[in-house]
Each structure stands twice: as C-alpha cells, then as structure tokens.
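Long-time lurker, first post. I've been practising inverse folding by hand and with some scripts of my own, and I keep getting stuck on stretches where the structure tokens seem ambiguous. Below is the full token string for one chain I'm working on. Before anyone asks, I'm not after the true native sequence, just a reasonable design that respects the backbone. If someone could post their per-position residues I'd love to compare against what I wrote down in my notebook.
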C-alpha cells in the first residue's frame, strides 16, 4: 500500500486508461476522486473500486471548462483538506489529414488535451505549493513526436510535454514532482475505434507484440505517485512496449 492516506484526482476516469489508473491508485491505498463528464461511467469506476474495498468518489467535471475544474478542486479540498496526486488523463482525438483538418477539430482537441491539462495543473500547483508536497502526472502520447493524421492531437500532446517540464521546474522547490507518461498503443475505446487493418499495422509496430493494457500505464503511474519517486521530475516516460511511431 504505497499510497495509503493519499488523496488522488484522476481526470477522464470513467473508462479506458483513466479507469485503470483510478483502480490501481485505490489498490495502493489512495482515496480516489473519479472525475469524468459521464456520471454513469464515473460511478462505474467508483463501484469497481468499492468492490475491491477501496475508497472513491465521483465528481462530474469537464476539464475544458475552467469553472468546472475550479469547482472540482474546491470540492476535494472541502472534503479532504489535501490533494496529493493529480493525474491528468482526460483526452480526446479528432483525427484527420492536415489538409482536411477543420478548425473545429483543431480547437476541440487543444481545448480538452492541452487547455484542460493546464487548468488542472494550475489548480494543483496553487494547492501543492502550500502543502509542500505533490505529484502531478500528465498523460501525453507517443504521438507528440508527430503522427500522420494527428496534427491536432500531436500538437496538444507536445504542448502537454512543454507544460510538464515547465511546471516541474517551477514546483521542484516545493517538493512537487511533475512528469508525463507517453502511452504507445493501449487497448481502449480510443484505439478500438480504428479499422481492424490499422489495428494490425499498429500492433505490428510494437516489439512486445501486443497492444498495452490500461494496467501497464497505471503501474508506472503508481510508482511516480509514490514517495519512492520523490527525486523523479520533468521526465517523459514511454509506456509502449518498445513502440516508436
Ligand atoms: P478513452 O477510452 O476515449 O477515454 C477517455 C476518457 O476521458 C473518457 O472517460 C472520457 O469521458 C474522458 N474525457 C474526455 N473528454 C473529457 C473532458 N473534457 N473532461 C473530462 N473527461 C473527459 O481514451 P483512453 O485511450 O483511455 O485515453 C486516455 C488518455 O490517454 C488520453 O489523454 C489519451 O490521449 C491518452 N493516450 C491514449 C493512448 C491509447 O493508445 N489509448 C495512447 C496514447 C495516449 P467520456 O466518457 O465522457 O467521453
């Protein structure tokens, strides 16, 4: 139980990687605030945690809305008086080749993936500076290095890397670490949306020979959230079975 007594917020925790992270942090002893837009999904994660004897609580929040994010952090502070771990996982893709990409597709992805992460990192920074403790983990993507059909998504995730490294440097003296994880190709609704042929091509690029599972990402996050990782900050860690895009 590496995270006993800690309070964690996980955004986009209603399904996919976010649910895997929330369940893992709860297994490690954290009290988990499950944040998502769809209450039914978020409550499903809370139930999955409760069935294993963990403590979790659902709070609806659209990370792209700064007022929603402020309300989320305020509610958690009112309830627990501390926020030790924030995992910024909420994310979307709206893929398209550059010459066809609409401004709407661009804006939607930047607003959720980058601006949404910014809102949460900013709220976390205000609280964690005063606590003199914190762990912020941002979910970027292997695509941040560039990926065909994902100009908007890659740009948003490259932005998350820059945000991570800056926040890490600003907050280091307050004993707050900030790191980014770059999942490779993980088996979730996001990737299941691709045609079977593309799925096979993607898995063919993975030296480990399989798509990752949400637990593969969650295990690394549990370490970064722990006291053992107190000297690890400003890092960008790939969790992709050796995949390079
Ligand atoms: P997913 O299965 O599509 O789940 C995304 C979750 O984020 C959903 O619960 C969704 O809620 C929530 N969400 C979306 N927009 C939100 C918003 N504005 N506010 C709050 N929650 C929001 O995706 P995933 O594969 O688990 O991906 C999770 C993260 O990992 C994302 O940041 C993604 O970019 C990143 N990632 C994934 C892969 C991969 O291979 N799967 C690879 C690299 C990086 P709703 O149910 O309300 O839509």
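-- Answer (accepted) --
I ran through it position by position. Result:
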């Amino acid at each position: 139980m590496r995270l006993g007594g800690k309070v964690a917020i996980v955004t986009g925790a209603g399904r996919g990687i976010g649910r895997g992270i929330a369940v893992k942090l709860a297994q490690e002893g954290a009290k988990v605030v499950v944040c998502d837009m769809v209450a039914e999904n978020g409550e499903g994660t809370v139930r999955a945690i409760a069935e294993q004897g963990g403590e979790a609580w659902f709070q609806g929040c659209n990370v792209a809305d700064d007022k929603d994010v402020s309300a989320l952090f305020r509610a958690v502070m009112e309830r627990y008086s501390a926020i030790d771990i924030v995992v910024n996982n909420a994310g979307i893709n709206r893929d398209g080749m550059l010459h066809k990409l609409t401004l709407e597709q661009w804006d939607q992805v930047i607003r959720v993936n980058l601006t949404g992460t910014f809102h949460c990192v900013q709220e976390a920074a205000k609280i964690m500076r005063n606590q003199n403790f914190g762990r912020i983990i941002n979910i970027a993507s292997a695509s941040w290095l560039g990926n065909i059909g994902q100009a908007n998504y890659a740009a948003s995730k490259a932005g998350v890397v820059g945000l991570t490294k800056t926040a890490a440097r600003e907050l280091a003296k307050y004993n707050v670490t900030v790191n980014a994880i770059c999942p490779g190709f993980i088996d979730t609704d996001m990737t299941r949306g691709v045609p079977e042929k593309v799925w096979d091509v993607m898995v063919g690029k993975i030296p480990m020979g399989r798509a990752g599972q949400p637990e593969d990402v969650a295990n690394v996050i549990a370490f970064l959230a722990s006291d053992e990782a107190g000297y690890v900050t400003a890092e960008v860690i790939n969790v992709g079975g050796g995949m390079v895009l």
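A couple of notes from the structure itself: The longest helix spans residues 103-131. The two ends are 35 Å apart (CA to CA). Happy to go over any region you disagree with.
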